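Please review the protein record below. Let me know how this chain folds according to its tokens.
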Amino acid sequence: MKSATIHHLNTGLIILSCLIAFFVPFELFLFSYGVLGPLHYLTEIGWLHKKNYFTKGKYDFLFLGIACVILVYYNFNPSKKDGDLITNIITFSLFASAVFVFIKDWLYRILLLILAIISVAFINNAPNYFIWFGIFLPTIIHVFVFTWLFMLYGVLKERSWQGLISVIVLILCASTFFVFQPDNLNYAVSGYVQKSYNLFAELNFRLIELFNLQQLNSLGEIYSTNSGFVIMRFIAFAYTYHYLNWFSKTSVIKWHQVPKNVLIGTLVIWVISVALYAIDYTKGLKVLFFLSFLHVFLEFPLNFVSITGIGKELFGLAKAKS
């Protein structure tokens, strides 16, 4: 009964996020990213730590943490020699996470990590490599695709039809932004919102290209064109529900069950983070850049667990029916 209630709540949150995203997408994103985002990063990292980050090694998370530190350094001190360095770090961390999840023996780990480096070098020149691994993977794939897979894995484990409804509704709501494309609904993006969102603008631009919605001449057009609004609705919806999904499952995931001093520390950091965004959104993004990417990196192992878990559950269902 408790599980069914949570699934129904999630379905309601999906629909609510969808409706708000239709009318004020940029504002919804900025609110969700600045207010819900930091609390999500902090609580999820704490929960992942209790789960040993779903890897076979006790200190695997340190490797991913160091990779994230290197990424942050080069993000603020760009390398003139290698424009894809940050993308390579993200890709290598993804491949390394797979090694940490499935392999325990260090000899095999070292060999596979070397293979991962070679693989990154091999795909480095692939078409759209930067777009898919550098832009989409830590953003829309992380918040939408991986969230959907995590939900599907839980539904298959529970054999819950209520959960299946949520999984289906998430896809249906995301599709509505592309099926129903009303005019701008008398919606205008303020100068403050444009300035605050500017660091994310390329994500919108690349998604518009991916879905072949419209040929834009500049990043600034995402704030004034119908295709810009269509994609922003999808992004705002994906990010908002990504956070709400996490908080709605508090009683199941139990991320709040931590020592009192840890909980207080989490809340203090969260309040400071929200204050930073309120004072200067762009500076808030820069200050919290490490934390936002760290939670993406540390979640990579869980993503592989979800994918393989889905495969096992589907195989089990097929075997049971045969």
The first helix runs from residue 2 to 23. Residues 11 and 169 are 7 Å apart (CA to CA). The two ends are 30 Å apart (CA to CA). Residues 2-321 form one domain.
